[in-house]
Structure formats: C-alpha cells, structure tokens
C-alpha cells in the first residue's frame, strides 16, 4: 500500500528508545524519591520499568502504513460496519497514570473497507502512547477517514482514569465518555440512531 496523505500525521517515532538510558532515568527517579536503588527489591526495577514503558507506549513506533499492510478491499456494500467493546489501555500524559476501557468504532463504507483485525490495531496504535482520551478518540476517527474515505466514521470511547481514582477527586466509579463523529454520523440522525441501537443491544455469549 502506498502511503496516503495524512496517514502519518499522528506522532510516530521510527525506533524505540534506548533501554539503558531509560533505566538510568528511572534509577535517578528512585534516588530522588529518597529510595535506595541498590536495595534488593529495587535493583532490577529500573530495567523492568524501561522494558514496561517500551511495551505500553509501543504505539509511538508502530508504523501506521505497515499496520494497514494493504488490507483495504473494494466493496459495493454501504451498510454499517461496527466493531464494539475493543479493550484498550493507555497512559495519561498529565500524570503518567493508566486509563483503560472500551472503544466502539463504526464506519459506513464508500466503496472501501478495512480488514476486521485492523480496527483493534488502529485503537492500539493510538492508545499505546502518552494520551488524553479526547485526542485519542479523534485520532482513531481521523485515521480511518484518511485511509478509507468513508461516508462517515463514529468512535465512542468509555474509560476509567486512575489519575481520578488514586489521586485528586478519588472517584473510583467515574467513567469518561468521548466521541468523534464525521460525515453522515454527524449530519444524519438516522445513522446515529442505528449505531446507538447496536451499542445498546447486549452481546450474545
């Protein structure tokens, strides 16, 4: 697949960070907190945290063109496509604490569809980085707009934020809901109603 205009406009870094440098920074953080980085329980913590950060922030060095990998198919149908309840984990850029939840991603094709497995991977691409939920929601929608040029895209994200659970207001049951709507989902109430009807329907076990 040829790179498309705008497909890499989200932050993308070609190579993961230096794990030795990351570990050194974590060691300095432990010392700044008054801990002893040489005590038994912390000796390997800098290396563990460096490895963890490369995993949970891997979206920065996922190549978005490789992610799509040609999985775009021509179709004549223009019916709703919905992938719901996509689990994700992300990191709040304000406090470096996790937020996690579910994403529902829908679009109405305009001659092109994307492979089913790619939609959860698009969510991962934008979740696994330092984020705010509002921007992540919009980035997922914009990415699908750029790749598919559909009639419309809808992304709805529900998440719990540890920065509001462990600190600050300390409300463990609070959930944040964000949405990004484009095309017919924004302009035509019938398409929004169809989407919401599907989301209200319990999943069959």
Indicate the topology.
Blueprint: H1 19-32, H2 45-56, H3 64-68, E1 72-74, E2 81-92, E3 98-108, E4 112-114, H4 118-127, E5 130-131, H5 133-148, E6 152-161, H6 162-165, E7 176-181, H7 184-187, H8 189-200
Parallel strand pairs: 2-5
Antiparallel strand pairs: 1-4, 2-3, 3-6, 6-7
Helix pairs in contact: 1-2, 4-5
CATH architecture of the largest domain: 2-Layer Sandwich
Largest sheet: 5 strands, mixed
Strand order of the largest sheet: 5-2-3-6-7
Low-confidence stretches: 1-8
- Write down how many β-strands occur, each being a DSSP E stretch of 2 or more residues: 7
Strand residue percentage = 15-25%
Report the CATH topology name of the largest domain: GTP Cyclohydrolase I, domain 2
Q: Give me the Rg, rounded.
A: 20 Å
Oligomer: single chain
What's the CATH H-level superfamily name of the largest domain? Answer: GTP cyclohydrolase I, C-terminal domain/NADPH-dependent 7-cyano-7-deazaguanine reductase, N-terminal domain
Describe this structure in words.
There is one protein chain. The protein folds into two domains: 19-56, no CATH class; 62-200, GTP Cyclohydrolase I, domain 2 (2-Layer Sandwich). The chain is 38% helix and 23% strand. The protein contains eight helices and seven strands; from the N terminus they run H-H-H-E-E-E-E-H-E-H-E-H-E-H-H. The chain has helices at residues 19-32, 45-56, 64-68, 118-127, 133-148, 162-165, 184-187, 189-200, and strands spanning 72-74, 81-92, 98-108, 112-114, 130-131, 152-161, 176-181. The strands form two sheets. Strands 5-2-3-6-7 form a five-stranded mixed sheet. Strands 1-4 form a two-stranded antiparallel ribbon.
């Amino acid at each position: 697949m040829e790179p498309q205009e705008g497909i890499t406009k989200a932050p993308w870094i070609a190579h993961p960070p230096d794990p030795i440098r990351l570990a050194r920074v974590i060691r300095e953080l432990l010392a700044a907190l008054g801990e002893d980085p040489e005590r038994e329980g912390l000796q390997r913590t800098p290396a563990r945290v460096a490895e963890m950060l490369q995993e949970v922030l891997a979206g920065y060095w996922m190549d978005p063109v490789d992610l799509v990998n040609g999985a775009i198919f021509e179709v004549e149908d223009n019916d709703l496509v919905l992938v719901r309840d996509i689990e994700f984990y992300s990191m709040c850029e304000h406090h470096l604490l996790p937020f996690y939840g579910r994403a529902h991603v829908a679009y109405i094709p305009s001659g092109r569809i994307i492979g089913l497995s790619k939609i959860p991977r698009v969510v991962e691409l934008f979740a696994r980085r330092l984020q705010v939920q509002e921007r992540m929601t919009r980035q997922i929608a914009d990415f699908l707009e750029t790749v598919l040029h559909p009639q419309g895209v809808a992304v709805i994200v529900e998440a719990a934020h540890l920065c509001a659970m462990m600190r600050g207001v300390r409300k463990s049951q609070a959930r944040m809901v964000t949405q990004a709507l484009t095309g017919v989902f924004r302009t035509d109430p019938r398409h929004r109603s169809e989407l919401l009807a599907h989301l209200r329907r319990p999943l069959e076990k």
